[in-house]
Write a structure and sequence with these properties.
This protein is mainly alpha-helical. It is built from 32 helices and no strands. The longest helix has 17 residues.
Amino acid sequence: MRFFKYSAAALLFAVMCCLPATAQTGNFIEALRLYNEGDVRGAYAGLRKTISEDPDNDAAYFYMSSLLRDSTLATSMLKKALEKDPDNFWYSYTLATRYQQAGKNAEAAAILEELLEKAPKRTSLYFDLIGLYMSSGQSQKALDVLDKIEELVGKSDLTVMTRADLLSSQNKPQEALACLEECFNETGSARVACALGEICAATYKDELALEYFDKALENEPTMSRARCGKAHIHRAKSQYDLYFENIMPFLGDAAVSPNAKVDYMESVVASPQFVQTFTPQVDSMVMAVFQSAPMDTVVINFTSGYMWSTGHIDQALALAKASTEIYPDSFSQTMNYVAMLYYSEDWNALLGASSAALGRFPDNLEILQIRALTYWHLDRKDNSMADYEKMLALAPKDSANVLMCCSALGDMCYEKYDEKTAFKYYERGLKINPRYAPILNNYAYYISERYPSPMAKPPKDLRKALEMSRITIEQEPDNCTYLDTYAWILHLMGQDLEAKAHFKHAMIYGGKESGAVLRHYAAVLEALGDKDRAEVYRQQANRYAQ
């Protein structure tokens, strides 16, 4: 939709040029200088001072409206600017855009209609009004405005195609087709021919659509839109050689929006069967998009992601790394590269990348967590714990952050044989969320490790461990690790029959691939007198230990 096509900077410049010289002095000019330098607070303070000293300065109200995030306050400021200067076009136009953004289409339309009465030859306003009517489903009103445009400046490709769109929205495809055909017969316009092709394709008149696309390309050989239309028809007919022949120029056209091409390619690669069948061609399509916009971040991320998904890990990482060097201040590019290193489990490279990222984005919790995990994988627990403790200090009121840090710190303290501190961290985490399964499971299991064999009278802490473990399997009844913890504590409490039932359940959900679970199950079977089966599971467990 063309409505609100002017940027905020353009509007501000236009208003500035219309100001009387007396308004462009003192605090006001200083406020504008600060605004242009990105100092929003300074500009806001300067404009407030200007309004206080000169309450009739309409431009100060206008600029203030552009600084306010609250749409109601911003609109109020615009209205004050209009009260001071009711004939200012840009004030009225900006207020219309505010109303349109707020979904108040009737109010926006009323302002545009009033502006047209004052400036009937300003054709851009007609198209703004048409866009507004189209977005609110008032296609007949839009058609009426279009009639006025054609009365004023005559027919053009744009007006004819807009009329066709409006007729199509009224479910009048034949009338839409007729107006386009009339225009094409008169002008031979490539754009109109392409629009005709698209309507024919939408109504399954494939051969006629191809004819119109070809006519468009005869007049404008580089028209990517027509190529794309032809490609879709050939793909629907399973004529893949012609599909690839026509889609490549579209994907390689630097004039086509990179976002549009990435959206298209994402729909293509969403079909694994198609990618597998035509891997070389799809690879070429991806590279055509990349070569057409090699500096675009959306394109870079899509291309590196595609390379990753198709097993070209080194190329994906190289491209992602290059993007962080091209755009060192882009957090999304940095995280894209860091995430790839994490999933590739290249811990040494990830350590360097995450540390470098923290140099650009100091105290960022996401990157700190990744580096903490990296240190953990590299068995550098002291460094890992330092990062988690820093995260706790940075966001002590962020419950999700505190919970995650307490869980990790508790685990590492236990690995360092500091049970007392580990359990303190677990208790701190459980105060935030008493049902947090990762802490409950590990806390319960580590308590059970105090007792090497079953006991006739279970101690209080083991009973506590059983209750914590029970909560985890209530939440995730098919979690093999949680089932193992619960069943093992039951065994230590002498409840082997119940423990066996939970181990059998664990076997279905991954227990056969865990040496620890197999050893525990073997111990329970032996306690129940099934020594032969116990030996089978013990041997399987030993294979995982090798």
